[in-house]
């Protein structure tokens, strides 16, 4: 039930300006949000018993995968982040890089997403951005149940045909 009184954290757990309020997720680990605080007791339906928590990294990976699925997106992340991420991805046991270039702020019922992307040369950037927003919102709302309040996109670079990949692992300086 949504309260009609105003709180410092805002109605849905996002403080105006975007900072997530995690005070309502007591018992959840830092960097996670509870999206289904269920009822308890034998008289309640089984599907509503208990709590579901989703780590921020999960939201980042879903958003990153959804953005990469859009034609015209070459990569995610700003130049330095892509370079460091490529090196880290090559280390055994390193992250997969699916959240690279993605920042999320997650509240109790809402999330906001910031993406840094590299587009292919020649694609209409406004159309690619609109497709990314649609795909990210659809994937996150379907998979997490969180309402996506905004998807901000920063185009950091354009990948030119024949341009060498930064992620090839070759260092320029030794």
Description:
Helices cover 26% and strands 22% of the residues. The protein has 174 residues and is of the alpha+beta class. It has a domain at 55-168: 2-Layer Sandwich (Alpha-Beta Plaits), CATH 3.30.70. The relative contact order is 0.17. It is elongated, with a radius of gyration of 19 Å. It has helices at residues 56-68, 79-90, 125-144; strands at 32-34, 53-55, 73-76, 102-106, 110-120, 147-159. Strand 4 (102-106) and strand 5 (110-120) form a beta hairpin. Residues 1-28, 80-91 and 167-172 have low confidence and may be disordered. Helix 1 (56-68) crosses helix 3.
Low-confidence spans:
1-28, 80-91, 167-172
Question: For the residues shown, what is the average pLDDT?
Answer: 76
Work out the radius of gyration.
19 Å
**What's the CATH topology name of the domain at 55-168?**
Alpha-Beta Plaits
Q: What is the architecture of the domain at 55-168 at the second tier of CATH? A: 2-Layer Sandwich
Count the beta strands.
Answer: 6
Overall geometry comes to elongated
Percentage of residues in strands: 15-25%
Helix fraction bin: 25-40%
List the helices and strands and how they pair.
Blueprint: E1 32-34, E2 53-55, H1 56-68, E3 73-76, H2 79-90, E4 102-106, E5 110-120, H3 125-144, E6 147-159
Parallel strand pairs: 5-6
Antiparallel strand pairs: 1-2, 3-5, 4-5
Helix pairs in contact: 1-3
